[in-house]
Amino acid sequence: MRQYFLPAGLILAAIFALTLPNSGIFLAGHSGIKLTIIIIFLVSGYQTNIAGTPLNKVLLYVFLTAAAVSLLLAPLLGLAIGNLLALPSSLLIGLLIICAVPPTLSSGIVITGVSGGNMVLALMLTISLNLTGILTLPTVLHLCLKASGPVTLDQWALFTKMLLLVLLPFVLGKFLRIMVKKQQVSPNWSYVNSSCVILAVYISLAISRQEFFRTNAGQYLAVLFSVSLVHLLLLGINSQAAKLLKLNTEDSKALLFVASQKTLPVSLAVLAGLRQDTGNAVIVCLLFHFVQLLIDSVLASRFRIRGEEASKPQ
């Protein structure tokens, strides 16, 4: 049930945004997206528990590699592929934003677990990359947008937004867990996060409804191809990086899935904060999210089946 809740909810959000957009438009005018992002990171901080996690050289090397690929190389791949396919300005903006944001908050960890990977390492990478991404996102995105065309970005305003919408709620959530002395947190909290993502997507699509219909079939195919190519390249690069680092199978899977995925909520927050009209950029972010979930779920299932077959007595 839990694994289908978010994908099914996103599909329903798209349907309702296209047919019943008024509520989404109303929420957009009352800081709806910002509130959902705050709740997402507040709950994420409350759910996170890294006590007792070993810190060693391997973790440092894996983090540096993941940061280089996810936070620096990924936006460059997006820029190159977007220009190569001659994507329209708004679609290119969407591709650059989704490529520049940190990894997903939960699906990377969950998929790592499904594949039989190291979930503790996946959690550590997710937290560290999201916190580091607060620092890298404004500068990297500014440079990529500047290289793509006449798009301006207030780096300081974006940095401040990331602090207020991402870091502060996360720290408050973590502090709240310490205060209530909770050792175990109900997995049902993940439904709160997923519901907020669904609501944020509904709001974003509702206010971009007209652009959704103006996007033609050729542009949809170009977006689908570009996001698939970026994600597959990230998977390939991270797979080779794991081999160069001589990681074991479990650690390799954590690096592979976490550093290849991108978070939808932060990309929506960035889109909402841009001063110029971003048009149908949200479509790129949404398609990227669906594509990465589909590809990685299939890949994780194959890893799990292969592992089960290898463990069977001959």
UniProtKB/TrEMBL annotation:
Coiled coil: none annotated. The chain crosses the membrane at residues 27-46, 58-85, 91-114, 121-143, 155-176, 188-208, 220-242. The keyword Cytoplasm does not apply. It comes from the Bacteria. InterPro entries: Na+/solute_symporter_sf, Put_Na-Bile_cotransptr. It holds the Pfam family SBF_like. Keywords: Membrane, Transmembrane, Transmembrane helix. The keyword Membrane applies. PANTHER family: SODIUM_METABOLITE COTRANSPORTER BASS4, CHLOROPLASTIC-RELATED, SOLUTE CARRIER FAMILY 10 MEMBER 7. This is Solute carrier family 10 (Sodium/bile acid cotransporter), member 7. It comes from Candidatus Electrothrix aarhusensis. The lineage of its organism: Bacteria, Pseudomonadati, Thermodesulfobacteriota, Desulfobulbia, Desulfobulbales.
